[in-house]
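Subject: sequence -> C-alpha cells, single chain

Hey, anyone have a minute? Need the predicted structure for the following. Not urgent.
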Amino acid sequence: MTAARARRRSRHARRWAIYACWGVLAVAVAVGTWVGVRGALAAQHLLEAKSLASTVQSSISKDPAGARAALSQLEADASEARTLTSDPIWSAASHLPWIGPQLHAVSTLATALHATSTDVIEPLVSATDNLNLSLFTPKDGAIDLTPVAALAQPSAGAATAAAQASAEVNSLDRSALLPALRAPVTEASDLLSTVAEGTDALRRTTALLPAMLGADGPRNYLLMFQNPAELRTLGGIAGALALVHTDHGKITFTVEDIQKVLPNTGEPVTTLDAATLALFSEKPATYYQNVTSVPDFATAAQLLQDFWKRTQSTPIDGVISADPVALSYLLSATGPLSLRTGDTLSADNAVQLLLNEVYLRYGADTPAKANAQQNAFFAVAATAVFNALSSGKGDPAKLIDALGRAGSERRLLIASNHPTEQAVLDGTLLQGTLPEASDDQTPVAMYLMDTVGSKIDYYLQVGADVSWCGAPAVNTPGTASLNVTLTSTVPADGATALPWYITGGGAFGTAPGIVGVAVTVYLPSGMQLAQSASTSTGAPITVFSDRGRTVLRWNENLAPQGKSAVSIRLATDHASAPLSLVTTPTIYPIETSGLGNSCG
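Reply:
Had a minute. Here:
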C-alpha cells in the first residue's frame, strides 16, 4: 500500500469517526430533547393532578358535583402524565446513571397518581354520586344502614389500590434525587399516604359499622367513660358506664350506676399474669376503676365484662371507651346543649365542667353523697349528648371529624367479642394495644398513672419527647434520649383551698395538694436502658420485663407549683425507623420541645 493511499484511508476513517461522534451526539441531543420536553409537560400535568387530588379528597363528601368535575380533570392530567413518561425512550433512559433515578421517580409518580384517580377516587366518587352525609343522620333514633353497606365493596377495592400506590412512591430512593424533585416526591408521598389512610379507615368503617349497629340482629355494648382527672395507663379510671343497645340502626342508651352494677367486693374477677401483677398489682382485676391500668384495651375490656358478669345477665358484644375530651369534640358537631341542671354544656367548657367544676361543687360532701351527685351530673350530661346525636342534631361532617380526632388521640377505643369484627380493628389506634415497631416508626410507649386516689391530675401538665442521638444507620447500634417533664399547676394553697375529693385528703398516704404520678415506659423490642438512671428526686428507676420488652418505672410526687424533669439514655443494637412516642391521652396537649437531652 502506497503512503498516499494509506493517508486517504486514514482521513476516511477519521471522517467516519467524526460522523459517528456527531451521530451519537445528535441522538443524545434528540433523546435529551425528547425526554426534556416530555418531562416538562409531564411535570405540569403532575402538579395539576396533585392539586386536583387534594380538591377531590376534601370535597367528596361536601360537594359531590364539584368532586366529580375535579375528578374528570384529575384523570385527564394523570393519564397524560403517565403517557408522557412511559414510552420506550423514557423507559430506556431511566436505566442511565444520575438521570435515570430522576426519570424513574417521575414515571412512578405519574403511574401512582393515575392509579389513585382511576382505582381509588373514581370508584368512591361513583359510589357517593347519589349519597350525601345527611343520609347518615339518625331519623327517629335510627341510622339507615343501606348507604353504609353500599360503600363496603368500593371502599375495599379503593383501599387496596391506594395502599399499593402509596407503597410504590414511598419505595423511591429520595437520596438519589435532585432537591428540585425530592420536595415534590415527598409532598406526593405524604398526599398518597393520607389517601391510603383515609380509604383504609373507610374500608374498616363500612365493614364494621353495620354489624355493630345491629344489621344482623340486636347488639349490646358497654360504653365506658374514662376520667383522665385520675390517670390510668389507657387514659383514666372507669368513671361512668352506659349500656348501649343497637338493633337495625336504632340505638338506645342507658346510663348505669357503675358502683351498683360493678361492685368492688375485694375479690379478683380473674387471675392476672405475673408481669401484669409485677407492674400493676392485682388491682385491675379487683377494682373496676383500675381495668384501664393495663396497656391493652382488649384486656381492659375483658376485665370490665368480667366485673359486669358478676352481677348482670345481659350479654355483651363488646366494649367502647371514650373520655370527656372526646365528648367535647362531639359537642363541636352538636353545638351547645342545655342541661336540666341549669348548665350549658359546650365544646369550650365540657372538659372543665366534667373534670373539675363538678368536683368543686360536690367534692366537700361525704364520699357517698359526693359520688351520687357527681354520677347524676355526668349521667345528665352524657344523656344530653346522646339525645342530641340520636335526634340528628349534629353536623355529619363535623361529627366524622370529631370521631376521627378522638380516634387519632386514642380517646376512642373499641373491642369486639366477634373475632371477624375485632380483626377489622387490628392495626388501628381504635384497638388500643401496645404499639409495635414498623418500617415507618419505632414507638416508645409512655403511660401515666395517678398514685393519690383523687381527681388532682386535672392540674398536671406533661412534656415528653424521644429522639435518636445522631442519625444511626439502619440496623446498626444506636442510642436515644427520652425526656419527661411533669408540672403541677395546683394553686399554692391547694392543700386547703381545694376539696378533699380533688386532693385525696391524704387517704392513701399522700399529703393533700401533692400530684402523685407513676410513669411507666415500654421500650421497643431490643432497646435497653443505657446506664443507671434516677428520677429528679434521686430515686432509682426500676426495670421490669413484659411481653419481651424492657419496661421502666418511676414515681414522682409534685408539690403545688412543683416540676420534675427526667432525662434517660437508651441503647439498641439495631436502630431502625424514626423514633416516635405514644402516651396516655392526657387532658392537655403534651409538650414536645425544649425538654432537655441525655445524648451529651
